[in-house]
Amino acid sequence: MADQQADGSVDRPGHIRSFVLRQGRVSAAQQRYREAMMGRIGVPYVAARVDLDALFGRSAPQILEIGFGMGETSATIAAHHPEQDYLGIEVHTPGVGSLCKLVAEMGLANQRIIQHDAVEVLREMIAPATLAGIHIFFPDPWPKKRHHKRRLLQPALVRLLASRLRPGGYLHSATDWQDYAEQMLLVLSSEALLENTAPGFAPRPDYRPQTKFEQRGLRLGHGVWDLVFRRRPEAVQPASFKAENDRQNQLA
């Protein structure tokens, strides 16, 4: 039987958890902006496909971000690319409140937020072959070896992510942990629906701004690794994948 979690998500047999809930302190401003803005830009979780064009009130390329943290990068990208729409997923209330504040202050019309488990959102709400891109920036590295199984980018999730990209859509991940970067490269390279856009790690695309934390790390000699993969054209989609994707959708 599925178990209801404190965050509202459901644990099912074989369910991939996209996060571990560590609820930090929510400031008065974060709480105030969350209460004021989520009625306008928040998207309630439902176990049904969502019409993304209706959600944003237009037809435009749609980018999904998993784990946007405090939202600075998300807001900056959305502000610089008004021609695209951005759907951010985050479970932690301080980060949700922070991005709500940035959206209000910057007057962004192309940002929406779902506060829920990303895996359930992908399985239930996002139709296959719809997204123009997916961003996963600096996910929890789980540095201890015994915790590596908790890392977000595992084969099952990468397969699900790839299925939600339209042909030519991209999956961009970044990390400042070299061993996690190497694991990401291996897992992403092993997914038949994806192809690497670089010989290995990619140069940082111009649209991803450097955070202050990242700039400080680079000054200290720390590395940052970007990976940008694209979904292959439908013509080379393995026949076995369609059957597996249909099976996943039936289980969703």
| Number of E-type strands | 9
Q: End-to-end span in angstroms?
A: 15 Å
> Average pLDDT across residues?
88
CATH class: Alpha Beta
Query: Which outline best applies?
Result: globular
| Number of helices in the DSSP assignment | 9
The CATH homologous superfamily corresponds to Vaccinia Virus protein VP39
Helix and strand content put the structural class at alpha/beta
Name the strands of the widest sheet in spatial order.
5-4-3-6-7-9-8
Following the backbone from N to C, one meets helices and strands in this order, namely EEHHEHEHEHEHEHEHEH
Residue fraction in strands: 15-25%
As a whole number of angstroms, the C-alpha radius of gyration is 18 Å
Which segments are poorly predicted (pLDDT under 50) over 5 or more consecutive residues? 1-11
